[in-house]
User: Which sequence fits this backbone?
């Protein structure tokens, strides 16, 4: 099963490079891992909560980074 999981991730990464090359690869990998971890969970909210945390973390990081350089 691990090979098919790797194939799924590799496919996402390949499509990303064609369609959205500016999309952060680390973010895509982390989203994939969250979905993979929770794919068979009965409670769908676990996946949604993990994705919400990831997105909030990323937004906070971007805001902090853009604030460090001052006005651009």
Assistant:
């Amino acid at each position: 099963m691990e090979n098919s999981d790797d194939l799924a991730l590799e496919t996402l990464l390949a499509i990303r490079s064609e369609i959205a090359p500016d999309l952060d690869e680390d973010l895509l990998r982390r989203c994939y891992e969250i979905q993979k971890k929770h794919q068979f969970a009965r409670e769908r909210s676990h996946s949604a909560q993990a994705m919400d945390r990831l997105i909030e973390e990323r937004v906070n990081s971007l805001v902090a980074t853009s604030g460090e350089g001052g006005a651009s």
Q: What stands out?
A: Residues 38 and 53 are 14 Å apart (CA to CA). The radius of gyration is 15 Å. The mean pLDDT is 88.
